[in-house]
Design a protein that fits this description.
This protein has 311 residues and is α/β, with parallel strands linked by helices. It is 29% helix and 16% strand. An eight-stranded mixed sheet has the order 1-2-4-3-5-6-7-8, sandwiched between helices. A hairpin with a 2-residue loop joins strand 1 (20-26) and strand 2. The radius of gyration is 18 Å and the shape is globular.
Length: 311
């Protein structure tokens, strides 16, 4: 199926009005990214972490105004920081082979410390992560307790729906249909705009792709923050049937809240599709709930939301 002509003709800006590029020095690296701030003091800061082969602009999609998490979050009173992970953006020249997840999980907290020195962060850091960025988010939550108030992850499970022999091909941008799903899920202009977002997956990052199931099993019992997981209706990278979800959530034994949801009308790249706004609104509503419950004497009990089948 071909991409429509609007994609080929439309010229799109690199980021939305009110969204600014920034650089942060962290653990010897210069990280690039985007930031959007609300009027007045922010309620909290949402840190958006992109997946493999993408950049921070994934959270500021230019094909339609409804796509941008940065704009929406700022309008609702949050500062939103979208960072290029180590090996992407400005830091790619410093570490062209990238870093392992463990190494990235050292850099990310340092970047947030550097950000907090320059910007108002409100009540603290909330993290919204996609796909490979979700691996980093969970690794960071497990290794840096107390850093995050809550975590929202999309496009990530714990067991692949892909044969192991096929996984190394991810970094070569194959499996297009698995990554995007039906073209109709995305507004006109999406794929032209995405040309500015895609980047090669660094080799050291790609070398760890097949290791994730074992890494998750080791990390999951140490994740101690409220967690929301979203699987797209057309998610094809991960196993997410009821039995797989039950096994996944059972391993998150320390998380005070675990919620699993499905996003109708979405492919793996939810934040670039027509479902971006409802997904982002639900994520921000989850963060609002976590802010309300933060500081209460009694922590909420474990609650696993139903894995409702999308219509």
């Amino acid at each position: 199926m071909s991409v429509d002509r609007t994609d080929r003709k439309k010229t799109l800006p690199t980021h939305s009005a009110g969204v600014r590029p920034l650089l942060l020095e962290a653990a010897g690296l210069t990280l690039s990214g985007l930031v959007a701030e609300p009027e007045g003091t922010p309620r909290a800061t949402v840190v958006a972490v992109h997946g493999g082969g993408m950049r921070a602009g994934y959270f500021d999609g230019q094909a339609h105004p409804d796509l941008s998490l940065l704009m929406l979050g700022a309008r609702l009173g949050f500062t939103v920081l979208a960072l290029d992970r180590p090996g992407y953006g400005r830091s790619a020249a410093q570490v062209p082979a990238g870093l392992t997840l463990g190494e990235q999980a050292v850099v990310l907290p340092a970047a947030l410390d550097a950000f907090a020195e320059r910007y108002e962060t409100g009540r603290g850091f909330l993290m919204l992560a996609h796909s490979y960025g979700g691996k980093l988010a969970l690794t960071t939550a497990a290794r840096s307790p107390g850093l995050l108030l809550a975590l929202d992850v999309s496009g990530l499970g714990h067991r692949y729906a892909v044969e192991p022999a096929d996984l190394p091909r991810i970094r070569h941008h194959v499996h297009w249909e698995r990554t995007w799903g039906p073209l109709g899920l995305y507004p006109p202009g999406t794929f032209r705009a995405a040309q500015a977002l895609v980047a090669p997956m660094p080799s050291r990052e790609g070398a760890e792709v097949t290791l994730w199931p074992g890494m998750f099993d080791e990390l999951a019992p140490r994740v101690g923050v409220p967690l929301r997981l979203t699987f797209a209706e057309h998610e094809a990278w991960w196993l997410h049937g009821r039995a797989h979800i039950a096994d996944l959530t059972a391993r998150l034994e320390r998380a005070p809240l675990v919620r699993v949801e499905r996003q109708a009308g979405a492919g793996h790249n939810i934040s670039l599709g027509r479902a971006a706004r409802p997904y982002h609104l639900r994520a921000l509503a989850f963060f609002e709930e976590c802010l309300e419950s933060a500081g209460e004497a009694d922590a909420p009990e474990m609650c696993v939301g139903p894995a409702v089948t999308a219509p």
